[in-house]
């Protein structure tokens, strides 16, 4: 199923037999219960083999480092590491945005948006299109750093206009991520082919709408004169951005479900440990998107 976060468009997350395609895959996949039971069946009355088997049962479970296989726990650690990088550079982006603000010049700069946005887009393309040949953790680190500049810059700018909005957007984002993860872990929400196809169609429509909005704002089209362009227009007194934003939040939440599902699939397929970086990258892409959308929704609400 290719209709998902492009970070997971790799055979390691798609091929159920992927474990056999990697060096040492079959051997690594058999570390644990099956090897132990097989040894028990053939040990017979051999005391030495029996003692060795008991030692294997007493030993701690093999983890990602021992097996060099992707695990959920290792992916979580990598995800936390990436968000730590993002947090550090977000502080830099925030300070950079607010640096020009003085009594004489009360306007923050948007330069961190430009640097972070362009740099993040370029590095994401490097990561996504280069992952089929080689996983590049350095490129993923660079992506997290650029996204931090972007997030820090846009957050500082919005906070300057609407004080308190960053705390509101952060809490809302954490709530959506937490609820989505809880529902997925409980098995109540799962990705399906039909829902994913619908998500893909809606996503393409949203991208087209966003591009049209950008061009209309650049060329000062009459209907794009508000601070958010077409998002500022209203239907029955309700801003289009608010209606569309709520829909997009649900889309982002489903994207998280697909990310979690692909990570589980990669673990089941016995993907190499390095693919945990792709799982962490995919989650970061979705969470950043979710945060920006929620930030815009709250800004539209507060500006009205």
Descriptive overview:
The chain is an all-alpha fold and 304 residues long. Helix content is 70%, strand content 1%. The chain has helices at residues 11-14, 25-29, 33-43, 47-58, 64-67, 72-98, 111-130, 137-161, 165-186, 193-218, 240-268, 276-303; strands at 234-235, 238-239. A two-stranded antiparallel sheet has the order 1-2. α9 packs across α12 (276-303). The chain is globular. Mean pLDDT is 80; it is low at 26-43.
Question: Could you provide a short overview of the structure?
Answer:
The protein has helices at residues 11-14, 25-29, 33-43, 47-58, 64-67, 72-98, 111-130, 137-161, 165-186, 193-218, 240-268, 276-303, and strands at 234-235, 238-239. It has 304 residues and is an all-alpha fold.
Count of helical stretches: 12
What is the structural class?
mainly alpha
- The percentage helix is over 70%
Radius of gyration: 23 Å
**How many angstroms separate the termini?**
41 Å
Spatial strand sequence of the major β-sheet = 1-2
Could you tell me the mean pLDDT? 80
What oligomerization state is this entry in?
single chain
The backbone outline, from C-alpha atoms, is: globular
Question: Layout of SSEs?
Answer:
Elements: H1 11-14, H2 25-29, H3 33-43, H4 47-58, H5 64-67, H6 72-98, H7 111-130, H8 137-161, H9 165-186, H10 193-218, E1 234-235, E2 238-239, H11 240-268, H12 276-303
Antiparallel strand pairs: 1-2
Which descriptors apply to this entry?
globular
